Amino acid sequence: MTASKLEYTQVQCTNRISATEDAIYVLGGRWTIRVMIGILGGNKRFNDLQRTVKGISAKMLSVELKKLEINQLAERKVSADQIPVIVEYLPTEYSESLKDIITVLAHWGTNHKKKITTDN
């Protein structure tokens, strides 16, 4: 079976590149998808996320969380009625749209790793 060749007009190609660049701008940071995976796993406190995403500094995690909030991919929930105050990060309804993308990306990564380690 041969893979079908995708053919685009110049306009379609330009539009697809532009849309992909937009997605990479939001998700393309070293830590962004890793943090997003942690959040999609359920409500997480800051330290829980830092333990989940191995190697990320507190400062970088803070930057990533703010970026995800701005892009409406994470929500910061503050429970000030408790002592101590509890701050959690939750996935938004909009962030659910990333689940399939992350699943496909993880699947591709697993297959790619197998391919390059068995072909060499």
Automatic annotation (TrEMBL):
A Pfam family hit: HxlR
Entry keyword annotation includes Transcription regulation: yes
Keywords: DNA-binding, Transcription, Transcription regulation
Domain HTH hxlR-type positions: 13-117
Name assigned to this protein: Winged helix-turn-helix transcriptional regulator
Native source species: Pedobacter lithocola
